[in-house]
Write a structure and sequence with these properties.
two-stranded antiparallel sheet, 12 helices
Length: 368
């Protein structure tokens, strides 16, 4: 463990004993029956929840109306949590001098699909990761055959404002794969899955998923199947479970393993104010900022992060993680239900004593 991590652990332990407040108790326990009841109330068939506090073993809880048939080996769609893992990979590549965060992406890959090629030449990895590319969320449905050849247009000028975009991340993925000569899943295995003990996780479909991957369910309980995506996409195709993803959270987000101090700092430093809808500034936007691939809730009237977080939404698969970096506390949960985000505020309240308006910020509208 590096000196930085030793100091961090000591700081967490010392602050735990020197301050007052609910999180200074070193034996925080989440009651399983409370979570089970919560998932049943919201008609969620299956949920995995994992809680971590520094110095303690993980607490993993299975909930949902089908919980009796579930195991910790079950595999869920991580949806947009895929972006967080990919952003870590990009930071590793930047550390190695393979990708420059402020180098135009057109230096690494083609821009044939862009309608405004002049604007496209301005795009950099830093803009993509902080969601300031100016692109729409998707040029076309990414699960459709037509997507790979669909024209890409800008919604806003590049680097002008926050605008959540899976299309932008996919563009950066193409650049990363072109430069390294490796697939996304190969890079993820080398930088994330193998070193962080995530043997069942993958951006590509695996034969084990025929039995381990869960079916998704709509708001009214209709089964939509496993959604066996072909190919891999850094914006939404990661499959994992809450325990394995917590390994990523602890090793990467909490301790910055594999990253230099400068890359770790850049990764978790807010760059864009996450006002989600351009035509409607909401109260929940006030303290939301985006780092390089990771969301953050900042202290009031500052850009100093209080929590790091990201949500995932593949329609019938919804998930969330929240990290209190200073206190060394984190949770993640994965569900196989369109109702999966209805419990996010209640879980935040349960763990941290606050909601941070995450459920409101996520909203249930399609991105512009």
């Amino acid at each position: 463990m590096r000196v930085r991590n030793i100091i961090y652990v000591l700081t967490v332990i010392l602050s735990t004993f020197s301050c007052t407040g609910r999180h200074n108790d070193t034996s925080i326990v989440i009651l399983p029956e409370t979570l089970v009841q919560l998932t049943e109330e919201h008609s969620i068939p299956s949920m995995q929840f994992t809680f971590y506090q520094v110095g303690k073993e993980y607490q993993t809880i299975l909930g949902g109306t089908d919980a009796a048939d579930r195991t910790e080996q079950d595999i869920y769609q991580a949806a947009s949590l895929s972006k967080v893992v990919f952003s870590y990979i990009v930071m590793r590549l930047a550390d190695e001098g393979i990708i420059g965060l402020d180098v135009p992406i057109c230096s690494y890959t083609g821009i044939e699909r862009f309608v405004d090629k002049k604007m496209a030449t301005r795009l950099t990895p830093r803009m993509i990761l902080s969601h300031t590319s100016g692109l729409y969320n998707w040029a076309y449905s990414p699960v459709a055959d037509e997507w790979s050849a669909s024209p890409i247009t800008f919604h806003f000028p590049a680097d002008s404002r926050f605008g959540y975009s899976g299309e932008a991340f996919s563009f950066l993925q193409r650049a990363v794969e072109d430069v390294t000569g490796e697939s996304l899943n190969q890079l993820a295995a080398r930088y994330v899955f193998e070193p962080f003990d995530m043997p069942l996780s993958s951006f590509e479909w695996r034969s084990e998923y025929d039995t381990l991957a869960l079916d998704g369910f709509t708001f009214d309980g209709q089964n939509t199947g496993k959604d066996e995506y072909f190919g891999s996409n850094c914006a939404y195709t990661l499959r994992t479970n809450s325990t394995e993803f917590m390994n990523f959270i602890v090793h990467a987000i909490l301790f910055g393993e594999g990253l230099s101090d400068s890359a770790y700092s850049a990764w978790l430093t807010p760059r864009s104010h996450a006002v989600r809808f351009a035509n409607e500034r909401r109260d929940c936007d006030k303290d939301m900022y985006w780092c390089l691939g990771v969301g953050s809730v900042c202290h009031e009237d500052t850009t100093v992060p209080d929590k790091y977080w990201h949500w995932g939404d593949n329609g019938t698969m919804k998930c969330l993680f929240v990290v209190d970096h200073d206190k060394g506390i984190a949770f993640d949960y994965f569900t196989n239900s369109a109702n999966g985000h209805d419990i996010s505020d209640e879980i935040c309240e349960m763990v941290f004593g606050e909601t941070y308006s995450i459920e409101e910020w996520i909203d249930n509208r399609d991105d512009e």
